[in-house]
Specification:
This protein has about 625 residues and is of the alpha+beta class. The protein has four domains: about 5-215, 2-Layer Sandwich (Heat Shock Protein 90), CATH 3.30.565.10; about 220-360, Ribosomal Protein S5, domain 2 (2-Layer Sandwich); about 390-470, Rossmann fold, CATH 3.40.50; about 490-610, Four Helix Bundle (Hemerythrin (Met), subunit A). It is about 40% helix and about 20% strand. Bound molecules: adenosine-5'-diphosphate and magnesium ion (MG).
């Protein structure tokens, strides 16, 4: 039903409403119109490719499947032309004059839900073809369908409520969209400006995009290709390009899934953890794509925050290009996406740990901090993250680590808890008084060297049904060992502990013979359930209340140790000197526990003892 003269049509009411918002919005990211039109062009080419498989008689069949963008800064126009499927007259009316497609519909719906106040909505939704009117005085669409029998047409509108349709001779197959820019949008007629926009949003579109005759997109959407066709160098090149990185990636996961969502993902772990090096906190930077078109370069929701060190791409065709974070439906989509990708990545790490333990250990040294954050804070992925943690232990060699799973597999039947000690390094923990009781009983103790470890252990709480327990805590009950030879008699021990309690007064809560000590004379156990020595130190560093409350500890003595036996003799013969020794022993224990705040009095006393010696 084509006619020879221009014919005027009214837009559907919803389109008028949409155009009104688009045109009058103060939205600053007007540039997304380029993304929208290029992705329409790419869709049209894709549709043509499919049509070519089944149809023989295709109009202009020799044309390359490509997209040509041209700018004219004199005429202030930008033209986006594709040799895709094109539109017949009826299709122009239906596709560009009525609201039949998902994106714009969802946009209007969100507006109805109170989104009108949010000018960002356009950026999130895209609003497809109509976004051209953010920058256009007028838009002309020249099109010829792939169907040879259908004549070409030009569709034109200034967005003010109506459009015109007119036959047009000599059109090539596909669609050519010519935008005459508004005066304040003339920058979109500049080559450099469009180049920058195309590179950002459309770098991976599979059809060639030429800007003023120059090819823009040369990097492939590697994530959509099959793994065994991709060379190592290609991955590295892609990583450097996509993540703007200079290093070689440390780990890489390339996977696809079909259910519950269609996902293609290519994730990279960089070589270094820049947060550890003291640079700023990392921003999430796995980019979200929908069929090779960028939706969001730094989406916050597709991975948990503690995986913010990952780089790469997630592409899901189940996402509308114009995804919105406002609507419930999309929220649940993102949550699903997040769950699937996170689970898959953690499973990948588990496999890495199993298959390449050395490399994994190195990865953990660099990025383990993030996994600890996940284990401590992310309830959804806690178990998986906890399994990935590694610690030194009393049974590992120097510089080697173990997992909680391995620890548990070494536990004897009678051991019910997983023990750990926090300290600055291996030799500090090994030479302290706390380890020996566990060593004597063949109990493995994990060594935690980082200041976050205690917090992590407290939050993780248990693993495989076994409680994580600080080995220096007063509550730890250990099995009896055979009574050592040459120890003080029980009655003497009772006398000595009684005397120590009186002599040391308020500074101790309890004094008793130790079931832990083997080589050290005394040890102090934390009597305060709620504040461990490490926590106390941290609070002190942060100047927090409570850190200054006087320390009260349980003092345990080793009845077999020469110093204790000597002290027993001395307390009868020279109580004054014995008192000095007792106080010094308590201070020694406090030093080992990291609880001696001020050494001045201790040094003075020590000098006195030395003078007497
Ligand atoms: P969407 O892309 O979400 O469908 P748009 O507003 O971007 O919404 O486009 C509306 C419709 O117009 C498309 O679905 C398509 O049928 C048609 N269309 C837009 N651009 C082109 C083009 N370059 N070639 C062919 N058809 C197009
Ligand atoms: Mg579109």
């Amino acid at each position: 039903m084509s006619t020879a003269t221009p014919q005027k049509f009214e837009f559907q009411a919803e389109i008028k409403q949409l155009l009104d918002i688009v045109i009058h919005s103060l939205y600053t990211e007007k540039e997304i119109f380029v993304r929208e039109l290029v992705s329409n062009a790419s869709d049209a080419l894709e549709k043509l490719r499919h049509t070519q498989i089944t149809e023989k008689d295709i109009f202009d069949d020799k044309l390359e499947l490509e997209i040509n963008v041209t700018t004219d800064d004199k005429a202030k126009t930008i033209t986006i032309q594709d040799f895709g499927i094109g539109m017949t007259r009826d299709e122009l009316v239906k596709n560009l004059g009525t609201i039949a497609h998902s994106g714009s519909k969802a946009f209007l719906q969100a507006l109805g839900e109170g989104g009108a106040k949010n000018s960002n909505l356009i950026g999130q939704f895209g609003v497809g073809f109509y976004s051209a009117f953010m920058v256009a005085k007028s838009v002309k669409v020249y099109s010829h369908s792939w169907r040879a029998a259908e004549p070409g047409h030009v569709w034109s509108s200034d967005g003010a409520g109506s459009y015109e349709l007119e036959p047009s001779e000599g059109e090539r197959r596909g669609a050519k969209i010519v935008i005459t820019l508004k005066d304040d949008c003339s920058e979109f007629a500049e080559d450099w400006k469009i180049k920058e926009i195309l590179e950002r949003y459309s770098a991976f579109v599979s059809y060639p995009i030429n800007l003023n005759g120059k090819r823009i997109n040369t990097v492939q959407a590697l994530w959509l290709r099959s793994k065994n066709e991709i060379k190592e160098e290609e991955y590295t090149e892609f990583y450097k390009f996509q993540a703007h990185a200079f290093d070689e990636p440390r780990l890489r996961l390339h996977f696809s899934a079909d259910a519950p969502l269609a996902i293609n993902a290519l994730l990279f772990v960089p070589k270094d953890n820049t947060e550890k090096l003291g640079f700023a906190r990392l921003e999430p930077s796995v980019s979200l794509y929908c069929r090779k078109v960028l939706i969001d370069a730094k989406p916050k929701d597709i991975l948990p925050e503690w995986l913010r060190f990952l780089k790469g791409v997630v592409d899901s065709e189940d996402l509308p290009l114009n995804i919105s974070r406002e609507t419930m439906q999309d929220r649940s989509l993102l949550e699903k996406l997040n769950k699937v990708i996170t689970k898959r990545f953690l499973k990948f790490l588990e496999e890495e740990a199993k298959n390449r333990p050395e490399a994994y250990a190195e990865f953990f040294r660099e990025f383990g901090h993030f996994l600890k954050e996940g284990a401590a804070l992310d309830h959804t992925h806690k178990d998986q993250a906890t399994k990935l943690l590694r610690f030194a232990s009393s049974l590992t060699e120097k510089d080697k680590t173990t997992s909680l799973t391995e620890y548990v597999s070494r536990m004897g039947a009678e051991q019910k808890e997983i023990y750990y000690l926090v300290g600055p390094n291996r030799s500090a923990i090994e030479s302290g008084p706390y380890l020996e009781a566990f060593k004597a009983r063949n109990l493995e103790v994990l060594f935690c060297y980082e200041s976050v470890d205690e917090y992590v252990m407290n939050n993780v709480r248990e693993f495989d049904g076994k409680k994580l327990t600080a080995a220096d805590h007063a509550d730890v009950k250990l099995s009896d060992l055979p009574k050592p030879e040459g120890a003080l008699a029980d009655s003497d021990v009772a006398t000595l502990t009684g005397w120590l309690k009186t002599t040391l007064g308020e500074r101790v809560a309890e004094v008793k013979a130790s079931d832990r000590l083997v080589d050290s004379p005394v040890l102090a156990l934390n009597a305060d359930k709620f504040m461990s020595p490490h926590m106390r130190r941290m609070m002190k560093a942060m100047n927090k209340d409570g850190a200054d409350s006087p320390v009260r500890v349980n003092l345990e003595i080793n009845p077999r140790h020469a110093v204790i036996k000597r002290l027993f003799e001395l307390h009868g013969s020279n109580p004054d000197r014995a008192k000095l020794v007792a106080e010094q022993l308590l201070d020694n224990a406090l030093i080992c526990a990291g609880l001696l705040d001020d050494a001045t009095a201790m040094v003075a006393r020590l000098n006195l003892i030395l003078a007497n010696a």
